[in-house]
Specification:
The protein is of the alpha+beta class. It has helices at residues 38-47, 80-97, and strands at 7-10, 52-55, 70-74. The protein has one domain (7-97): Phenylalanyl-tRNA Synthetase, Chain B, domain 1, CATH 3.30.56. The chain has a 3-stranded antiparallel sheet with strand order 1-3-2, covered by helices on one side. The chain is globular.
Length: 98
């Protein structure tokens, strides 16, 4: 098992507009989106210069029935909340271009 020290786990549910904070959303509603996949998060994290990896088969504990998958990111010393906001802003840019 690898050490989790430099890594952080990011779940797609953190960005879900339909969820409340109590249901697992971790970012402000103005940055949230309706549907975000783990593979999109990996792509954008790599674009932002992070080392990211998709792990399939894992389920978010607060909604274990949802689509499985999570993203593991090398944080490079940054806090999880700052990384989430960076990813959310980038996701929002991609969403507006569609």
């Amino acid at each position: 098992m690898r050490s989790r020290k430099p890594y952080t786990i990011i779940w797609p549910q953190y960005f879900d507009l339909k969820r409340s904070k109590a249901q697992g959303r971790r970012i402000p509603k103005k940055f949230a989106l309706e549907k975000v996949s783990a593979t999109e998060i990996v792509t954008l994290a790599k674009k932002l210069g992070y080392e990211a990896q998709y792990e399939k088969g894992y389920k978010y504990p607060k909604s274990w029935w949802d689509e499985p998958g999570r993203v593991v990111i090398d944080t490079k010393g940054k806090s999880k909340s700052k990384i989430l906001i960076e990813l959310a802003k980038e996701l929002k840019k991609v969403e507006t271009k569609r």
